[in-house]
Amino acid sequence: MSDTTPARTSDVPTPERAVALPGTTAAPTLFENPGLPPHPHRMADVDPRAAKRAERQVAAMFTLSMLATLVFLVSYFAVSMDQAVYVPFIGAVRLQHLLLGLGLGFGLFFIGVGAIHWAKTLMPDEEVVEERHQLRSSDQTREAAVETLQEGAESSGIARRPLIKATLGGALGLFGLPFIVALRDLGPLPGDRLSHTMWKAGMRLVSDPELAPIKASDVTVGSVFHVMPEGIDKVEDILEQRAKAAVLLMRLNPNDIKSAKERDWGYEGIVAYSKICTHVGCPVGLYEQQTHHLLCPCHQSTFDVTEDAKVIFGPAHRPLPQLAITVNDEGYLVARQPFQEAVGPSFPERGHR
Length: 353
Ligand code: FES
Known about the structure:
Bound molecules: FE2/S2 (inorganic) cluster
Largest sheet: 5 strands, antiparallel
Distance between the termini: 76 Å
CATH class of the largest domain: Mainly Beta
Number of domains: 3
């Protein structure tokens, strides 16, 4: 038997194996490889008449396939396109289309069934074991490959011709640059666009979509407002500005706020955070009043509003940026400054506003 010939199960030795029982430090116990269970022979393997019967069954399937294909061919040429027939549950269909479909379908079906029956009843039926061959090449093959490479380098003369070596290196190095330069055509970096939103110091917070200014006294503990900067309806690129400037406004009990910076950037427990998820930018719209968690519906990132909206679950990598707020003379909530970092996905992490 050659190296690549699969061994029959009866040829395979059944070595003894040594294993330690789980949870014990006892010496390994030897046990015998049980091998495969006894192979049950099929009727066609032991009875020539059964084999002949199976052969006739397979031939019958293939014959049915031929008949079905003939139905297809005859209907294609001989059946008029104008003839219709009523099929229950479907309605009126063209007779030719029906026969073409049935002929083709049964032609394929009987070939498949015949082949399966043939394989199951008449083709060789023995389990075989094929040992995996080693993937590593032999030492000679590896040495020969290294030698070939060295010969190639030597015959090219590159070691003796430094000028060619240097210019080839330069040419190959420069060749990659056009592909990098072409990346500019993909447009401005998202980081640049997300670094600037409409928010400015003194700009009033207005409810979305009513665009009504919000007084601090309107925001009760547990309530949430979807907020835009005042004047959002007057800008030209309204869609882009709305997408970047969206903010969620919530009032917490000041004692629940754990971060001094968050308390300082808020107003009497009212805090404002960017609504754009720092994962890939979905709107974070679900606020759990009991836990003070903000949830992003896209990939379930969860932010803790009591602690700088830090990420406590999910794929987002950084907290939601906070918008510092205060109130003006009339008691309306206003931004104290623009966002101090880029809103949205994490990749543009630089100093931003
Ligand atoms: S965009 Fe929010 S978790 Fe993915």
